[in-house]
Amino acid sequence: MTISYNGAKYCGWQIQNNGITVEECIEKALSSVLGEEIDVVGAGRTDSGVNAIGFIAHFDSEKTQLLDQTAKVIYKTNAILPEDIVVTDIFPVAEDAHARFDATSRTYTYYVHTHKDPFAKQYSLFYKFPLDIEKMNKAAQYLIGTKEFCCFEKLHSGNNTSICNVKEAYWEKYTPQTGQISEEGYYKFTITANRFLRNMVRAIVGTLLEIGRGKKDEQWIVELIQNKNRTQAGQSVSGHALFLTGITYPYNTANNKDK
What we know:
alpha+beta; Alpha-Beta Plaits; 2 domains; 10 strands; 22% helix; 23% strand
């Protein structure tokens, strides 16, 4: 299944004891519609407040109506779900298909604006300092490759390994849909990797922003990766401007039929 959600009200994707999560809402809605207990497995574990577009999850069911009346199941599920979560597709896959372990890459996008904009602030970080996008892009290139990224990982995360393969990382300007006369000062950061550590993208963005405002030079990224010390890197930025925007698999799914 593919899902999109605004993560502002949720404690991330994965079910936990200290607050409501997206996974919990999906499981309750599907269980109600299908009349059986449904366990959903997501492609990743987005942090609290983080958004997703085209998120992939899988579940098992014996109900033939999923094949015969898919549109009706989607409609009923969305009618139960809160307005900030939507199921966009449900489709059959092989019995051994796994939304998390089969994924070959994930892409995140982070939005930043450098002057006050009351319309952009819901999904973009207001950063009041001018930014040098060329410096940030030069620095981002040092992230490319298979490396140990513990310097950008939340402390005590408990991962077996901090090694990730970053395939792309870059900044670009974008055009806001807010009626602003000037398009200057709107930036988005895109990063793709085979896996991400907890808090990794937000820590990377916070670090690159310090380089962009002139506090550090591009080589700082190299030093941080070599030193493997989280406390030396930049502060993590807010999750509200972060979107999981792409997931790829070695087989066809509803959101990557052309890949």
